[in-house]
Amino acid sequence: MFVTPERWIQSPGVGAESDYEDLAYPPNGGSLKLFILGIIVPGTLTYHGYQAWASQEAWWPGRGGGVMVHGEAAQAMAAAYLSVAAFIHFRWFWGLLRAERIFQAGTVLSLFSFLIALIWALCAS
Which keywords belong to this entry (predicted)? Predict the structure, then answer.
């Protein structure tokens, strides 16, 4: 496939406005996507979030492989992990089941809780 010169100079932000708009609508997919992205992935993240909360030791992603944080910062990161797990669950489980109100409310609440957890983690570290 040949890329035209017009595409070479196109701003990288072109088309980005539709990315956040896509979060407002349920995704497409079948039962396999519902099972993997709606149950397995959020369950794994929830397990890691619980482990980080209980042990007060969590991984903070970054350059060079990230860093391990301890104490309150680890609990804040655990809250962020749980928020991401909730977002993925509400998006791909309830979104694929077409439960619109649960999908919308859960998506918004999980994104707000992620922002709060991230601010908490930044202040605690």
Answer: Membrane, Transmembrane, Transmembrane helix
Residue with tokens 């928020």: 83
* 96 falls within a domain: yes
User: Residue 31: is its pLDDT beyond 80?
Assistant: yes
How far apart (Å, rounded) are the C-alpha atoms in residues 18 and 42?
Answer: 25
Alpha carbon distance 27, 25 (integer Å): 6
Among the listed residues 101, 94, 83, the one whose alpha carbon sits nearest the alpha carbon of residue 34: 94
Amino acid identity of residue 124, one-letter, is: A
Q: Is residue 3 part of a domain?
A: no
Q: Give the HSE-up count for residue 16: Cα atoms under 13 Å, Cβ half-sphere.
A: 5
Domain that holds residue 84: 31-59+69-124
pLDDT averaged over every residue in the chain: 86
Give Cβ neighbours of residue 24 (< 8 Å, ≥ 6 apart): 104
d(CA 50, CA 56): 10
Confidence of residue 9 (pLDDT cuts 50, 70, 90): low
**Per-residue pLDDT tens over the stretch 45-99:** 999 999 999 999 998 888 888 889 999 999 999 999 999 999 999 999 999 999 9
